[in-house]
Every structure is written in structure tokens, then in C-alpha cells.
Amino acid sequence: MDALFLSRLQFAATTMFHFLFVPLTLGLSVLVAYMETKYARTGDETYLRMTKFWGKLFLINFAVGVVTGITLEFQFGTNWSRYSAYVGDIFGSLLAIEATVAFFLESTFIGIWIFGWKKLSKKAHATVMWLVAIGSNVSAVWILIANAWMQSPVGYTIRNGRAELVDFGAVISQPFAIVKFIHTVSSAYVLAAFFVMGISAYHLLKKHHIEFFTRSFRMALTFGLVFSFTVFILGDLNGVVVAHKQPTKLAAMESIWETQPAAPVYMFAWPDEKNAKNTIEIGAIPGALSLLAYHDYDHVVQGLREFPAEDRPPVLLTSMAFKGMVGLGCLFIVLTVVGWFKRKRLLESPGYLKIMMYAIPLPYLATQLGWLLTEVGRQPWIVYGLVRTEEAVSPVAGYQVAVSLLAFLLVYGLLGLAGFSLIAKYARKGPQIEDEDAAPADGSEGEQAQPA
User: Fold this and answer.
1) By the number of CB atoms within 10 A of the CB, which of 108, 176, 179, 349 ranks highest?
2) CA end-to-end span of the chain, whole Å?
3) What is the C-alpha separation between 317 and 70, in angstroms, rounded?
4) Which residue would you say has higher pLDDT here, 104 or 210?
5) How does residue 191 score in pLDDT terms, banded at 50, 70 and 90?
6) Do 72 and 157 form a contact (C-beta atoms < 8 A)?
7) Cβ–Cβ contacts within 10 Å for residue 7, how many?
8) DSSP-derived pairing of the beta strands 300-301 and 260-261
9) 162-165 and 156-159 beta bridge pairing
């Protein structure tokens, strides 16, 4: 058993499972905060019920995400100790900031939000939820900066046989980090929007709580429409950065084997890993890749043959992940645009509501494909151009990794089953009136204030 292969498989499995929960945390926290703000400003009880219903789903999702995220980071010490020893001065500092600042902020205020319904005024309680949302998104900032550094290492020097940080500003301000953060978080907002729209569509089809779920759908629709376009625009900018920083990934994304000017984009390409002549290419758009990646129709794009075989990423998986992600991103734009024109007659559009209900898994699939593209396209480097993946793995036996991999799959499988079962249960149940969950107080007298 190969420790390198199993370690990569374990990290991929645990990361992808963890990222089933992260995007919904990022997006739903913002939506719930906005719902509660509407309640605090208007006093409309429907917004209070929306806050509690969607907030409950948020909390279930958050709990599973936290558990899987903590164990994920341990692997840098157990499976990737050589990587940690070599770049820990940079990578470790970013994770430390995320844990000690953003995660603690988020977790602390979640506790206050849960137990503060009878203790805080409406506005104070809504402010707490905004702090939760800010903490969640700031946490993503540092994680994505760390990943961006792995994609494009800057601000370091090699000293005493390891990479040491010399310019923290360069690390956090490089274009790769900025574009990556906005693109990733925007995709999380799209996922949350489709989650809310899909569940709302389910209840609207059943004529349950029509006013409640019509408002929820319309609110999420606006959110999803804005960020579907944002994802598309930032995806294009991300492609420009990739073209300049990771030319092998760019070539693999479009299965470009030969260096050429006016490089095309293929509507569909099925690449052969070993023989470029066997690559199936359909629907070529001449010059489109050169234009999109370099903003120059005649710009020369390096083909995969320009690079040694050992420096090329897996072409088939990289290309398929890219095509799938882009295709789904375009679909999200279409669905939200159509929804915008149907927003005032949702009950008269059962066909559209059914599509939105069944579309809930699609943004999850798109985010997974995005990370496959990001990480597989970077191979064979764990830090692009600096450290190869095979050089970063811990000196452990393959059977040891195999045991931990099986344990992770078992535990994570049970966690996933429990988490998604609870979300599905309460999503189908719909909003409930619960006497023990009183509204926040109108005044600001803490425990003495009466529920609204």
C-alpha cells in the first residue's frame, strides 16, 4: 500500500466532505442575519419565524462542519509532516490566525445567539448574528489565503533548509488570494441561495406556509441572482491569474497539447492522458482561450507538450472538472434569471418550482468540481513550483494510513448521514411556533425584558 496515494486519498475525501458544509455556513449565516435584521426593523413576525427556521438548519450544518474541519487540520501533522516542517512558518501562521481570531469569534457569538433570545433586544440579537456571519466569512479569508499561497507562493525566502516568511503583506494581498476568496465565497452564497429556494419550492408546491416561503424564495433569489453573475465574472478573472501563474493547469483545463496562438476553447473535450491524437474535441471556438486568459486573441498559449510529463497534472480529471463547473455556473445564471421574471407568480409556475427543488444538489456538485480543478490541476506540486507532493508526505507506513482512512470514512459517513438527515427532517417539517423560543426583547434591560 502506497502511503502517498492513501494520504492524498484521505485528505481529498475529508476535505471534500468538510466542504459539503462550509459553503452553506458562509451563505446561510448572511441570509439569516438579513432576515433577523428585517424583523428587528419592521417587527414583522414572519421574519422572526424565517430567522428561526433557517437558523435551525444553519446550526445543524454548522455543527457538522466544525467537527469535520478540526480533524481535517490534524492531517498536516500526521500525514503531511514534511510539508508542515518545510512551510509551517508561513502556512501555520495563517491557520493560527484563522483559529484564534475568526473561528473563536464565530463560535462565541453563535453561543450568544442561541441562548440570547430572551436576554437581548431585537437589534442586539440581530447584531450578534451579523457577527457570526462576519466570523464565518473572515475564517474563510485566512483558509483561502493559505490555499492561494500553495497555488502561488510569494513573500518567502529559503533559509536553513525551509521556507520562511519575509513579507506577510505580499502573502495576503496577492491577486491569487483576492480573486480566490471572492470567487469561492460567492459560490458559497449561490449554494445557500439554491438551498433556500429549493426548500421553499418544496413547500410552495405543497401550498404550505405560502407567505413565509414566498418571502424566503424571493429573498434567496435576489441573493442567488447577484452572486451567480459574480461567480461567473470572478471565475473569468481567476482564469487570467491561473494563466499567468499555473500554465500547466490552464493547458490541462482545455486539453491544449500543442503550443499555439489563438488557442481555442472546446465546448466538449475528452482528453487522452498519454496520446494527444486520441483526444476527442467537439465545438472549438477559435481564439477564445487566448482571449479569455490573456485578453489577446492571438496570444500564444503553451501546450502540455512544452512541459515534462512528470510536471503535468492529470489532464482528464482537470478538464472534466473545469467543464462541469463552468456548465453548472451558466445553468445557475439561467435559473435565477428565469426566477426573477417568475418571482411574482411562483405558485403559477409549478414546473419551475420543481426544477428548483431538484436543483439543490447542483451547487454542491459545482463547488466540489471547483476544488477538484484547483487541487488536482496543481499536481504534482503541493506548493506550486516549490514543493512536490511526494516530498511532503509523512514517513509513515501505508497500512497506517489505510487504517485511518477507513476510520475517517466510517465516522464521516455516520456524521454525514446524521447531519443531512436532520437537515432534511426539519426542512420538510417547516416553520414551527415554539413557546420556549421567545422573540428578542424590545427593550435593552437584559434578563428583565419581556419577550416580544
Assistant:
1) 176
2) 62
3) 28
4) 210
5) very high
6) no
7) 24
8) antiparallel
9) antiparallel
In this predicted model, what pLDDT tens digit does every residue of 348-364 receive, in sequence order? 888 999 999 999 999 99
- Side chain identity at 260, as an amino acid letter? Q
pLDDT higher at 58 or 68: 58
- The three-class DSSP label of residue 22 is helix
Amino acid at 379: Q
Rounded Cα–Cα distance for residues 109 and 387 (Å) = 39
Cβ burial 245-256 (10 Å sphere, 16+ → b, else e) = bbbbbbbbbbbb
pLDDT tens for each residue of 368-423:
999 888 888 888 988 888 888 888 888 888 888 888 889 888 888 888 888 889 98
Residue linked to cell 490573456 = 294
Nearest one of 445, 452, 442, 446 to 115, comparing CA atoms: 446
| Residue 452 near residue 122 (C-beta atoms within 8 A) | yes
In 3D space, the residue among 174, 141, 143 whose CA is nearest the CA of residue 156 turns out to be: 174
Q: Which of 196, 254, 180, 188 is nearest to 20 (CA)?
A: 188
Q: What are 155's three cell numbers?
A: 513573500
The candidate with the shortest Cα–Cα distance to 218, out of 354, 45, 342, is 342
Average pLDDT score over residue span 134-161 = 86
Do 216 and 185 contact (CB within 8 A), yes or no? no
Contact between 300 and 261 (Cβ < 8 Å): yes
Q: What torsion do the CA atoms of 126, 129, 130, 135 make, to the nearest 10 degrees?
A: 160
* CB of 313 closer than 8 Å to CB of 248: yes
CA-based R_g, the chain, Å: 24
pLDDT category at 450 given cuts 50, 70, 90 is very low
Neighbours of 295 (CB within 10 A): 10
The answer to whether the pTM exceeds 0.70 is: yes
Q: How far is CA 252 from CA 276, 278, 303, 441, in A?
A: 11, 15, 8, 57
- The domain spans of the chain are 15-173+396-452, 189-393
Of 27-31, 411-415, 443-447, least confident by mean pLDDT is 443-447
Retrieve residue 283's grid coordinates.
465545438
Give the CA angle between residues 335, 180, 156 to the nearest 5°: 175
Average pLDDT, the chain: 84
